[in-house]
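lol ok so funny story. i was supposed to be doing the assay writeup but got distracted and ended up predicting the structure for this chain instead. priorities right. anyway since i did it might as well share w the group, maybe its usefull for someone
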Amino acid sequence: MTTTLLREQDARTGPDGGPPLPPPRGELTEALVARLRGATGPLPGRRATEAADPYGEDLQLALHLAYELHYRGFAGVPDAAEWDPDVLELRSRLELRFEDALRAACGPPGDLDEVFEAMLTEPHEGHGVSHYLIRHGTWHHLREHAVLRSVHQLREADPHLWVVPRLQGRAKAGMITIQYDEYGCGRAEHIHARLYADLLGALGLDPAYGHYLPVVGAPALANANLMSLLGLHRARRGALVGHFAALEIGSSPAASRIAAAMRRIGTDEAAQRFYDEHVEADAVHEQLVRREVVGGLLADEPDLAPDVAFGAEATVHLEDVFAASVTRAWENGTTALRAPLDDVPGDAPPDDPSCPPRAAGTGPRAEAPGEDREEEA
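and the output, tada:
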């Protein structure tokens, strides 16, 4: 299945400007992909979007396609598609369906200090993807995890920059200070997205932007889509700051475990550098984001505290769903991707006895958050 998906993608490679469009996953994406290829038929209406699973493959891929038009776009899709009013109307309905589901799952926003403190407390017997990798992870698991995160990490800080024009004073200065690190402190080779591309290459994977979109499932897409949903709307600036804070607070411990798992398995330095960088940088960012970005925003706009809390809680919720989906698949001996990576050269050393058999099929998708929480680095 992976071979078919990736070859189908490669066959549609068009002019410069972005990755190829992926294969559709249902009614919504069938119509949207056709529109982006130049079809003039109507896009799905309100009934179809309201009936769609808010966490499902079809809706999450449709949202990703609509959002990606604001980033690098897709090969062969004209720049004008970014502002196609029919696409924007469809995106708006998809966003509403997704956000309503998130708010129902998270409930009324909690006290912000309590929300952040809960993120800093890890149980003695931790669960989640990084815990699985450090205890049981193999070369195969590292590669799948790298592919799952690639949709976001190859544009790591970009969605958060949408909030900068909407901040002022301390919040803006603090955000820019952190983002300066994310973009390599002025050195292109140190940009975090570049470090992630180096990680992919060191694991024998393709570092091209968007290459693995066909095999990345809804739980990973939902994490990336939340960032775009919050970033593209000025009204959700508080929630984006909460999302940003949640990632910075939870990133360093998870990055430390993944880096340790890589050393245990025997990856080279190029694969480890991305997570080593986040261990040190995000420990500093955690204090800066709480004191200056969140503190500065709420000093200017105290009424946004519930929005900041919602952004943080929605991030944790989707990370729980992602972690439960991935670890359940691995514990069952199946792939956490929509299809296995057995068509990619160098999937695992042939003499690696710790690498489990590649069981084809789709790993289970969690329907509700579990006790696992794995923050993105």
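The two ends are 29 Å apart (CA to CA). Residues 269-300 form the longest helix (32 residues).
back to the writeup now i swear
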